[in-house]
Automatic annotation (TrEMBL):
<dbReference type="InterPro" id="IPR027417">
    <property type="entry name" value="P-loop_NTPase"/>
</dbReference>
<dbReference type="GO" id="GO:0000731">
    <property type="term" value="P:DNA synthesis involved in DNA repair"/>
</dbReference>
<protein>
    <submittedName>
        <fullName>AAA family ATPase</fullName>
    </submittedName>
</protein>
<dbReference type="GO" id="GO:0005524">
    <property type="term" value="F:ATP binding"/>
</dbReference>
<feature type="domain" description="ATPase AAA-type core">
    <location>
        <begin position="25"/>
        <end position="328"/>
    </location>
</feature>
<dbReference type="Pfam" id="PF13304">
    <property type="entry name" value="AAA_21"/>
</dbReference>
<dbReference type="InterPro" id="IPR003959">
    <property type="entry name" value="ATPase_AAA_core"/>
</dbReference>
<dbReference type="InterPro" id="IPR014555">
    <property type="entry name" value="RecF-like"/>
</dbReference>
<dbReference type="GO" id="GO:0016887">
    <property type="term" value="F:ATP hydrolysis activity"/>
</dbReference>
<dbReference type="GO" id="GO:0006302">
    <property type="term" value="P:double-strand break repair"/>
</dbReference>
Length: 384
């Protein structure tokens, strides 16, 4: 299943947004234009659909409720709305789903957030439409979505399972290197890769070995002197560790644990593991960080090759980036989405006809689109 269209109203940076999505999407824009906030829409839906401890109220609480979620450009309109169109597959005959969720604060007293609209359709056939008569007779029901309730989502549970399977990754190498010293609380759903080693440990042995072997083949090309990667548990503490062997003047080389890996090596391992793990939408935040430009150029190709080799259904990947090397290597210019700042918030769009013509005549997406993310008067930075 994949999301084919996203419509937003009053969501953070976006007063209004309406954009089509493909199996791959690469988001570009200036700093603070809303790339991460756009990814957060899918994380918001994931929290709502989570079977354990999820729901609308938790998703709102994690984001500071309506005062921090509602767009500053909304003016008098208090409602936040999310609409997604989904396809079960790329087959023209596949089922088409629509999910709409709108909500707003009650405007008095405790400022509770109530659902103003929840709609699910399949092939244009309406499955649920809220508020219904039961909601109108008991307004507290409108504090919860049917999406999060097992008793009410039986007819569209596949949507809930899809939203709940979304993976977000913005790996912070230091949290892996110094995990024992930091001993920090792991954020739910592990967006920063703190639990990467634990996830590897929980993977069945045969699958784990196959994935690590594939990662090792990539690292042999990307990391000088690298020759072998293995997973091992500490004999004393039982803590999971990754170990890599690097060739040097000694015959057997030298083994290093993850705390000795470079930041780029850890981020590359995390990226390649995430691509092989899970079935839902994958959200990648600036995967180019800490990586050599020559490696960054091959990230789009790596994503395609890893996902094409899967025996499971196609997986949707959405990437945010500032890298011209990465965008230049995108094979389909239509996958690049441009976020542009304006007086009424951020807008998001695909390349226009003129830009497509430029790319068809030899220019790559980075040369055509990235200059449009350049802040005005950026030259003033040099006068600081």
């Amino acid at each position: 299943m994949l999301i084919s269209r996203l419509k937003l109203k009053n969501w953070r940076n976006f007063r209004e947004a309406d954009v089509g999505l493909s199996s791959r999407a690469f988001l570009i824009g200036a700093n603070a234009s809303g790339k991460s906030n756009l990814l957060d829409v899918f994380r918001f839906l994931r929290t709502i659909a989570q079977v354990e401890g999820g729901g609308l109220q938790k998703a709102l609480k994690e984001r500071g409720f309506m005062s921090k979620l509602r767009s500053l450009h909304a003016r008098r309109d208090p409602e936040v709305s999310i609409e997604v169109e989904l396809l079960e597959s790329l087959d023209p005959e596949a089922k088409r789903w629509t999910y709409v969720l709108a909500f707003k604060a009650e405007g008095k007293g405790a400022q509770r957030v109530f659902i103003t609209k929840e709609v699910v359709t399949c092939n244009d056939r309406e499955i649920i439409l809220r508020p219904d008569s039961n909601d109108l007779s008991d307004e507290v029901r409108l504090t919860q979505t049917h999406m999060e309730q097992i008793n009410n989502n039986a007819k569209f549970r596949e949507l809930a399972e899809f939203f709940g399977s979304t993976t977000y990754l913005h790996l912070v190498p230091q949290l892996l290197k110094f995990g024992e010293e930091i001993s920090g609380r792991m954020v739910e759903s592990d967006p920063f890769g703190q639990g990467l080693l634990q996830r590897i440990a929980r993977t069945p042995q045969k699958t784990q070995t196959a994935r690590l072997k594939r990662i090792a083949e990539a690292l042999k090309v990307a990391v000088p002197q690298f020759s072998q990667l293995q997973f091992r548990k500490d004999e004393v503490t039982g803590a999971p560790h990754l170990e890599a062997r690097f060739d040097h003047w000694r015959v057997n080389g030298a083994w290093q644990r993850e705390e000795q890996f470079s930041d780029g090596t850890l981020r590359l391992i995390g990226l390649l593991w995430a691509l092989q793990e899970g079935d839902g939408m994958l959200l990648l935040e600036e995967p180019e960080l800490s990586l050599n430009d020559a490696i960054v150029e091959y990230i789009p190709l790596m994503i395609d090759r890893v996902l094409r080799s899967r025996k499971k259904a196609a997986r949707q990947v959405i990437v945010t980036t500032h890298s011209d090397n990465l965008i230049a290597a995108v094979s389909d210019p239509g996958w690049v989405l441009l976020l542009e700042l304006g007086e009424n918030g951020t807008t998001i769009r695909e390349p226009n006809a003129e830009e497509f013509v430029a790319m068809e005549n030899g220019l790559n997406p980075a040369e055509v689109l990235l200059p449009k993310t350049r802040p005005e008067r950026i030259e003033q930075m040099g006068l600081f």
